[in-house]
Design goal:
Elements (H helix, E strand, L loop, with lengths): L1 H4 L26 H18 L10 E8 L13 H19 L4 E8 L2 E9 L2 H11 L10 H12 L7 E8 L10 H10 L2 E7 L5 H10 L3 E3 L3 H9 L18 E2 L3 E2 L22 E3 L6 E2 L4 E2 L6 E2 L2 H11 L6 E4 L23 E4 L6 E2 L1 H11 L3 H4 L2 H8 L1
Parallel strand pairs: 1-2, 1-4, 4-5, 5-6, 7-12
Antiparallel strand pairs: 2-3, 8-9, 9-10, 11-12, 13-14, 14-15
Helix pairs in contact: 2-10, 3-4, 3-8, 5-6
Length: 394
C-alpha cells in the first residue's frame, strides 16, 4: 500500500521519452549551446529548490554509518567501493566542518554482523580524518547489520539536548542486513528520539532502507558512479529543515581568547588520551579555565560551547541565506556587463539570461549567480552600498 501511495515512478515505469530531442543544433550546426543551456537549467533548479524561508537546524549532530561488509570490495567504483567512498568522505568531512562549524560529526562502521563506533561525536575534523586514514587499512568482511548500527548511533544521539538536530547518514553497499532482532522496534525508537536518517546506496534500492528514510523524514538515493556518489553525499552539507519537535532555546556560548604566555602550563583537554607535553599555548574556557588547543569545542568540564566570532558568522548564513536573484532575458536588461566579474554580456547561449538582485538591482551572469549563492553567500552590490548594508544588518 505504501508503494501505491508514492507518486514518484521508477524510470522503467514512466512513459516513453524522447530525451534526445532536448538537444538541438543551432544555426551553425553546433550542439554546445543546447548542452550549456541544459547544464545551466539543472544548476539553477537545484539552487531554487533550497527554500530560504524554512527554519534550519544549524547545531547538528551527525553520525555517518559506513557499510564495511564484503560488498565494499566490489570494483564498480574505482579502484574499489571502499577506497572511493573513503576519499569522498575525506573531502566531505573538511567541507562539513567548514560550513557547519558549530556542528559535530561521528563515524560508525558495520561488518561481520556487528557495529563499531570508530569516532565519537566531535567538532574536531582532524580526529575524523585520522579515523578515515585508519579505515583504509581495515579489510571489509562479512555482512552488515543495520539494526546494530542504528542502536550504536541511537545510544549517543538520544541523550542530546532537544534544541539540536540529530541526523544519521548511512552509506550502504550490501543488498542484505543481518540483524539480531526486529529492526522495526529499533526504527520506532529512532522515530521517538526525533532522529533523521538518510541513506545513500551504492548498489540498488532496498525496501528496508527506503522505509527507514520515509518514516524518519530523511532522503534515499542510489548512486550511479563516483561523481554521482560525491554529489549525493555533499547534499548533506546543508542543514536540513528543523523538526517541529525541536525546541526553541537560548544557548550559552563562550568566546575564549588565545593565550601564549602568562599562564600556568596545563594539559590540553582535547588530547588527554594522547598525553601531550605541558605548555601554555591554547584557548582557555572562560567559565572553568580548561585549556583547548583548537576551536570550536565543547568543554569537557563544564559543557560550555567554545567558539569564535567567525564560527558563528559562518553559521549565520544558514539562518538568513542570500535571496534568489530574479532571472530575466539579457535583452530586457540595460546592463552590458556583469557586476561581479565585469564580463561583457554576449549574444551566446551562456548569456541568454541574466540575474538581478532583488535588493540592489545589480545584474550578474550565471556563473556569478551560482558562485554568490553557493560560496560567498552575500551580494557584492548590497555589501558595497552603505545604505543597503546598514539596512540588512539591522
Amino acid at each position: 500500500m505504501q508503494e501505491e501511495e508514492d507518486p514518484k515512478e521508477y524510470r522503467w515505469e514512466s512513459g516513453y521519452e524522447k530525451t534526445w530531442e532536448t538537444i538541438q543544433e543551432d544555426e551553425s550546426g553546433r550542439l554546445e549551446p543546447s548542452v550549456t543551456e541544459i547544464i545551466q537549467r539543472t544548476k539553477r533548479r537545484k539552487l531554487l529548490d533550497r527554500e530560504a524561508s524554512v527554519r534550519l537546524g544549524i547545531m547538528r549532530h551527525v553520525y555517518i554509518i559506513l557499510d564495511y561488509s564484503q560488498a565494499m570490495t566490489e570494483q564498480d567504483l574505482k579502484p574499489t567501493r571502499q577506497i572511493c567512498t573513503l576519499k569522498i568522505l575525506e573531502d566531505f568531512i573538511k567541507e562539513f566542518h567548514d560550513q557547519n562549524p558549530i556542528s559535530q560529526l561521528g563515524i560508525i562502521t558495520t561488518q561481520n554482523k556487528v557495529a563499531k563506533r570508530n569516532s565519537d561525536l566531535s567538532n574536531n575534523p582532524q580526529r575524523h580524518l585520522d579515523c578515515i586514514k585508519k579505515l583504509q587499512d581495515v579489510p571489509c568482511r562479512g555482512e552488515p547489520s543495520l539494526q546494530n548500527a542504528l542502536e550504536v548511533a541511537l545510544s549517543s544521539l538520544r541523550h542530546l539536548p532537544p534544541h539540536t538536530s540529530r541526523e544519521i547518514l548511512i552509506i550502504y553497499a550490501a543488498l542484505t542486513t543481518c540483524d539480531p532482532g526486529e529492526i522495526i522496534a529499533t526504527l520506532q525508537k529512532v522515530q521517538e528520539a526525533n532522529i533523521r536518517v538518510s541513506v545513500v546506496g551504492l548498489a540498488a534500492e532496498l525496501h528496508v532502507c527506503k522505509d527507514i528514510t520515509k518514516n524518519t523524514g530523511g532522503s534515499f538515493s542510489v548512486s550511479i558512479n563516483d561523481l554521482h556518489l560525491k554529489e549525493l553525499v555533499n547534499e548533506h552539507l546543508e542543514p536540513p529543515p528543523a523538526s517541529n519537535k525541536m525546541d526553541h532555546t537560548l544557548i550559552k556560548v563562550g568566546f575564549p581568547h588565545q593565550i601564549n604566555a602568562d599562564a600556568k602550563p596545563a594539559l590540553c583537554m582535547c588530547h588527554l588520551d594522547d598525553l601531550p607535553p605541558l605548555n601554555t599555548r591554547g584557548y582557555y574556557c572562560p567559565q572553568c579555565t580548561a585549556k583547548y588547543c583548537d576551536l570550536p569545542a565543547e568543554c569537557r568540564v563544564c559543557g560550555l560551547m567554545l567558539v569564535t566570532a567567525p564560527h558563528l558568522a559562518r553559521s549565520y548564513r544558514h539562518l538568513f541565506p542570500l535571496r534568489h536573484f530574479n532571472e530575466i532575458l539579457a535583452e530586457e536588461s540595460s546592463a552590458k556587463e556583469c557586476y561581479g566579474c565585469q564580463k561583457q554580456f554576449t549574444a551566446t547561449a551562456a548569456d541568454k539570461n541574466v540575474y538581478v538582485c532583488r535588493t540592489c538591482q545589480q545584474v550578474f551572469c550565471f556563473n556569478c549567480d551560482i558562485f554568490l549563492h553557493e560560496t560567498v553567500h552575500s551580494c557584492p552590490g548590497c555589501a558595497s552600498n552603505p545604505t543597503i548594508s546598514q539596512y540588512t544588518n539591522t
